[in-house]
Amino acid sequence: MHTRGPQDYQGGRHQARRGAAQALSDYHNTDITYHHSKKRFRLFLGRNVTFLKVNAKQVTPTTGFIPMATSKVRKGSSDESMREVLELLENDSRLTAREIAEQTGLKEKDVQRFIKEMEARGIIRHYKTLIDWEKYGDDSVYAIIEVQLNPERNVGYDAVAERISKFPEVVTCMLVSGDHDLHLVIKGKTMKEVAFFVAEKIAPLSQVTHTATHFMLRSYKREGEIMFEKEEDSRLVIHP
Amino acid sequence: MKIAKKVIELPPSGIRKYFDIASTIKDVISLGVGEPDFITPWRVREASIYGMEKGKTTYTSNWGLLELRELISKYTFEGSGGDYSPNNEILVTTGVSEGIDLAIRAITDPGDEILVVEPSYVSYKPCVIMAGGVPVPVSTRAENDFKVRREDIEKRITRKTTAIIMNYPNNPTGAIMTRKDLEEVADVAIEHDLMVLTDEVYEKLTYDGRHASIASLNGMRDNTILLNGFSKAFAMTGWRLGYACGNADVIEAMMKIHQYTMLCAPIGAQLGAIEALKNGQSDMQDMVREYNRRRRVIVRGFNALGMDCFEPKGAFYSFPSIRSTGLSSEEFSERLLYDQGVVTVPGSVFGESGIGHLRCSYCSSMEDIKEALARIGRFLDTLKTEKAPTIKKRVKR
Ligand SMILES: Cc1ncc(COP(=O)(O)O)c(C=O)c1O
């Protein structure tokens, strides 16, 4: 006579895991088997074998199992899709959470929550638009200033760099390696204004030993964006 | 003037007509293009230009540059199980297009029947006919996600059947086949000793799970001619570069024809392709991710409009159904083009099993895709108001 016991329950669970392995195999187009004694899923990736650790409670033979396992198979895949959200926003800050959700397949709520968190953590710093002012007809003047410094005791370059950064004329301020220390980008109305700003505000600082000013003549690429005319779409509207 | 009968009898491409209409209309948005809207990654263009500057302007080996064949072997088969020798099992061709032609010609005697899985890319049937063979369509259906099944194939096999041509990820449906699905085809092929020509030009454009090649299944390596190329994955359509892999005897036979017709693929393109394989992976992945975003938007858009669209898992086409409108796919395409200036390709162009569908590529900017969806929505609305009187009449009765 046969009665239900723990043995059967065990068997049932292994059965369920085998079902899940099958579903996973189809999904990933690779061989995934359930390893009975190790209680692990064994996954073949090319010539490599990987074991997946799986919480037994989460195992069902239905596809419900797959999203959880997927995030383990593609290591850090959720990180990756969140990174994609940031990249999309970096390219177009006008995108709404809903549009991002449509494009990435994430849930709108998750996108919203993620963006809020990124703003709170200061990873999303600012929403900005890249404008070709030259083309608009604006004649602002930009200059790159190389600054050499004597670092200060205890605070190194930070104190002076932070002080310089606070001027609104300073668009960019970076500590760099090489034969100068600070790399500044200054914006002004005229060359004279920029030159005076450097002469009056930057050069006289006691830590500054040397400056060199390079006026920018033309931008070809800024922030990863090509600033000259892009190649045209020359495809036929239909083919062959 | 004499023109060969075989050529006269070839049906003209079903697409030509729409091209002619489109060229008379202003402000068209094209979902008819089967070509990336990206320009070839700059590093690839630069490598080719540099080669030209250095005077690399000569013929190459008939097989293609050895370095390229070595890279193809390395990158194509890494981890897939089926690897082919760069020495005599890989042939560099002028596009997958030439590969298709060579493969068919190399294995076809007059009267041989070659199965073509439909809906299919437009060039297979004409190539079979020009090689003196007889193309025999094998239908697939939306209900099966346009996968070809064992029984579909078996129904069409006769004593004259020698080969089967298939294309997954598929143009026009975007369907893919998993390893398990492919096992079925492999079983039939082995049972009936059929050669399998597999056009995997969209291999890299697979969005869910991993691409599986029938060549990598047990016992299929020597029964398969694997065709692939650079047009789609690396946005290199105009470069005309592809490759064929298979058993040394078959590839040798293809090389013979290639030698007398093409001699070799253009060297500039081969130099670019070397750079693409060596350093172009991340450019490619960026493009794939962008296609994937558009794919989600377009499929969702069609379903929201009530045009049933199964989820394409590869290539860059969506294949919504237009059956609910009662129009034929040609009618739908033509009227949509006249009414709203949106170019699509009627599914019927790709064989009988494409009837009732529309091929809409998403090789257009996100803005264009959204605008196209909006216009299609407006078009559907006009169809509804048109139909209203008929429906009312019916209600009265
Ligand atoms: C399935 C399929 N095969 C081959 C080709 C042609 O490729 P190639 O440019 O490499 O000749 C296409 C182009 O649309 C295609 O869709």
TrEMBL record, chain B:
SUPFAM superfamilies reported in the protein's UniProt record: PLP-dependent transferases (SSF53383)
Keyword Transferase in annotation: yes
Coiled-coil parts of chain: none
Recorded superkingdom: Archaea
CDD domains attached to this UniProt entry: AAT_like
InterPro entries documented for this protein: Aminotransferase_I/II_large (IPR004839), AspAT/PAT-like (IPR050596), NHTrfase_class1_PyrdxlP-BS (IPR004838), PyrdxlP-dep_Trfase (IPR015424), PyrdxlP-dep_Trfase_major (IPR015421), PyrdxlP-dep_Trfase_small (IPR015422)
Any GO BP annotation: amino acid metabolic process
Cleaved signal peptide residues: none
Alphabetical UniProt keywords: Aminotransferase, Pyridoxal phosphate, Transferase
Enzyme Commission designation: 2.6.1.-
Family, as annotated: Belongs to the class-I pyridoxal-phosphate-dependent aminotransferase family.
Subunit annotation: Homodimer.
Name assigned to this protein: Aminotransferase
